[in-house]
Amino acid sequence: MLRLAALTALLLAAHSAGGEDAPVNTCVDCHGDLLEEAGGDIHRAAGFSCVDCHGGDPRAEEQDRAMSPARGYVGVPTAMAAANMCGHCHSDIERMRVINPRLPTDQLAQYRTSDHGKLAARGDEKVATCVSCHGSHGVRPVGDPASPAGKSRVVETCSGCHNPSYMEGRSIPTDQLPKYEQSVHGRKRLEERDLAAPACNDCHGNHGAAPPGVSAVTHVCGRCHATQAELFEGSTHASHFRDFDAPPCTTCHNHHEILATSDDMLGTGERGVCSACHTPGDPCDEATKAMKAGMTRLGERIEQAHDALDRARRLGMDVERPTFELAGSEDALVRARATIHAFSEERTEAVVKDGVEIATAVETSAESKLAEYQYRRRGLAVAAAMLLLFAGLLALRAHRLEKRRLQDGP
Questions:
Q1: How far is CA 151 from CA 103, 148, 178, 189, in A?
Q2: DSSP-derived secondary structure letter, 280
Q3: Is the dihedral of CA 393, 394, 399, 400 positive or negative?
Q4: What is the CA 280 to chain-centroid distance, rounded?
Q5: pTM of the model
Q6: Cβ distance 147 to 141 under 8 Å?
Q7: What angle do CA 136, 142, 146 make, to 5 degrees?
Q8: Residue 203's closest CA among 187, 182, 181, 225?
Q9: Which of 28, 180, 196, 214 is the most exposed place for a label (fewest CB within 10 A)?
Q10: CA-CA distance, 295 to 345, in Å (whole number)?
Q11: How do the domains of the chain map onto residue ranges?
Q12: What's the Cα-to-Cα distance from 60 to each of 57, 63, 69, 272, rounded to whole Å?
């Protein structure tokens, strides 16, 4: 910031002096306020000035000459012209190697393949370009929390265009944000401020933004849900979904309104999602009932084991080891809920069986701790009774001795 202020003061002072060889920048005469807006601009920090983006002649005193198209002047570019302006540098491998070798140089190529880029190429001036997401003056690194393309602001940035007002007259949905806000992803991101939760660009991409097609959606979801995606691709259902031209993950879990999953989603019941393709009582429905019953059985066994451990713990028994072992049963329940994506009753039952065996062993261990406690209590009661009896006998013996002493006299 101090460097920028010093540079600005130098430019203004040099322009006022009017020296023939002074680094005059007449842009600041009218647009000095943009220098303040560009206070944290990454381009200005790298030594770029107005002319690097807008062209023209910043040394010319006459406005017509300074802003002459013949001298390469570009005012406010729109559509593809805006993308090309940014791509002039960001697609230049040699230049970017000097400025920042860590930045990719294929952003413009990706943008041209996206729906945004295709519309821009057709002259759509309302479509999103580089400056729509990154800003124009005051562009900050994506890792900067103040960047509109950063993790903490990307949902706000995308919804700045994808809303009913801006999209009026276009035949695309505009309810993405309200649905996302109610989804399990949106609640994590917007309410709990968990920046690891998926946002718009995590599913739709960044510069190559495009709605994922049927063949791509599994790979998009599978970047986070790798186990489920792998199981699904190896299942018999994968070919059925392709045959019916149905997107795999979103057919059951929806799109922007993805809600927290539950076992009730399995089957053709009231909350079951299988009813979209299956009817109650068909072979697949019976299989899902069996899978759901297995997970319910495992969940109940885990609860019973937890209850036994809690009772033993409250009585002061050491249950650290069986509590640790029970985590294996809880892990089995998680794996069973993932395994249902293989649509195999046998595979799901095998995982459930492993979990039930662990939970049963833990409950048996907890019950043995409770039995040990009861044994100790009985042993303590017997020992206390023996001690009381012994004390009583001692008291009786002492009484008799004292009585005899009194009878015998001094």
A1: 17, 8, 19, 10
A2: T
A3: positive
A4: 35
A5: 0.77
A6: yes
A7: 70
A8: 225
A9: 196
A10: 11
A11: 1-75, 102-210, 212-259, 283-408
A12: 6, 7, 13, 71
42 neighbors 141 (Cβ within 8 angstroms)? yes
What would the pLDDT profile of 307-316 be if each residue is shown by its tens digit? 999 999 898 8
The three-state secondary structure class of 46 is coil
Alpha-carbon distances, residue 168 vs 123, 162, 172, 294 (angstroms): 18, 10, 9, 50
Whose tokens are 């790298």? That residue is 46
Q: What angle do CA 316, 318, 324 make, to 5 degrees?
A: 130
Angle at 398 between CA 392 and CA 402, to 5 degrees: 145
CA atoms within 13 A on the CB side of 292: 17
Tens digits of residue pLDDT in 37-60: 666 788 888 888 888 888 888 888
Q: Tokens representing 179?
A: 């649905």
How far is the C-alpha of 153 from the C-alpha of 159, rounded, in Å?
10
- Amino acid letter, residue 408: D
- How large is the average pLDDT for residues 136-161? 92
The pair of three-digit structure tokens given for residue 80, joined into one six-digit string: 């593809």
Tell me the one-letter amino acid at 385: A
Neighbours of 339 (CB within 10 A): 22
Tell me the one-letter amino acid at 353: K
| CATH number corresponding to 283-408 | 1.20.140
Indicate the angle between helix axes 345-408 and 283-314, nearest 10 degrees.
20
Q: CA 328, 329, 333, 334: dihedral to nearest 10 degrees?
A: -20
- Rounded distance between C-alpha atoms, residue 133 and residue 156, angstroms: 10
Radius of gyration of the chain (CA): 37
- Number of Cβ within a 10 Å radius of residue 107: 18
CB neighbourhood size of 348 (10 A): 26
